[in-house]
Amino acid sequence: MSGCSFYTVADSAYFPGAVALVNSLRLSGNEDPVVVLDCGLTLEQRSRLAGEAELLPAPSGAHPMFVKWLALLEHPAEVMVLLDADMLVVRSLAPLVEVAAGGKVVAFADLNPARFQEEWAELVGRDVERRTYVNSGFIAVSERDGHDVLARLHDAQQRISREPFVGSDGTIRRPFKYPDQDVLNAVLGAYVRSEEMAVLERRLAPSQPFAGLRLRDTKTLDCRYPDGSQPYLLHHLYAKPWLAWTPTNPYTRLLPRLLVADDLPIRLRPEEVPFRLRAGLLPEAVRDALVVPRVANAARFKARLELKRGWARASGRATSRQSDRRGVGGAP
């Protein structure tokens, strides 16, 4: 069993994301072994990854979201770091590995840190403590302290239902709207004490629009906030830049560096990635040009919204004055 390993899950559609993740690990000084759970990679994609990662086959037909814990169970290490394939690592993860080695489960707060569903207790068979809701894109845990938790995660993941239902109060409820993430928080809240958790603030693993974050050096992946602090990860939620056009941000600006640069451990050919994500002045100009319509649309939307609010306020004042003229009883 090795000291530390990094894990991710990928299918053929997420191959570019997995390549960028592995390359970002190496460029940011994270040299420990990488394990990729193969949920449908092509033969060529497997061969491209094999030089930098060990590939494990996932159960036939399995959705990546429902088997992501399996790689850690089947190929354990003393410290295991699971990362989603839509993440980029932009600095050494050694401080987080050290915390996990000391017996804590390391995670980052989610966009909605207050999410909690009472129905989670039914899945795990015991009370779930309400605490900060964490993102499932990253988790670091030691094999010694986390094996049972990982086994419970994998088991619970197979038993959830994503179907909404009507609660006792008559409202429609979706306790597992986010299948892997809700299961993670349910199991952690039931089986891991709060003092055994190390939950880092979300700005250290931000997602778009990456507010306040500036890419200072593409070559070294140096990203910083105005106060000089550095995130560990960049997480691109929702639409993936290699599958669809997305607004330019630090993540998308790093992709050419992490997919087609000459010094990469795994290098894709330029024709394997969309033109807008290739290196060079012309693709960069295209990326910048595509931002303009999006900004203009956002500005128009905001202007219309403010105009409607102004009309609503004016209408409200007019109605109030009319009511005042009518008197308390409402008679004209």
Layout of strands and helices, then pairs:
Layout: E1 4-10, H1 15-27, E2 34-38, H2 43-49, E3 54-57, H3 64-67, H4 70-74, E4 79-83, E5 87-89, H5 94-101, E6 105-108, H6 120-124, E7 138-142, H7 143-157, E8 165-166, E9 172-173, H8 179-191, E10 197-200, E11 214-217, E12 222-224, E13 233-235, H9 250-259, H10 281-326
Explain what this protein looks like in three dimensions.
With 332 residues, this protein is of the alpha/beta class. The chain contains ten helices and 13 strands. A five-stranded mixed sheet has the order 3-2-1-4-7. A two-stranded antiparallel ribbon has the order 5-13. Helix 7 packs across helix 8. The radius of gyration is 24 Å and the shape is globular. The C terminus is likely disordered.
Largest sheet: 5 strands, mixed
- The radius of gyration is 24 Å
Query: Which descriptor suits the 3D outline?
Result: globular
Number of DSSP E strands: 13
What is the typical, i.e. mean, pLDDT? 87
Strand arrangement in the largest pleated sheet: 3-2-1-4-7
Helix content: 25-40%
- Approximate strand percentage: 15-25%
Structural class: alpha/beta
Low-confidence stretches: 292-299, 325-332
- The number of helical elements comes to 10
Element string (H = helix, E = strand): EHEHEHHEEHEHEHEEHEEEEHH
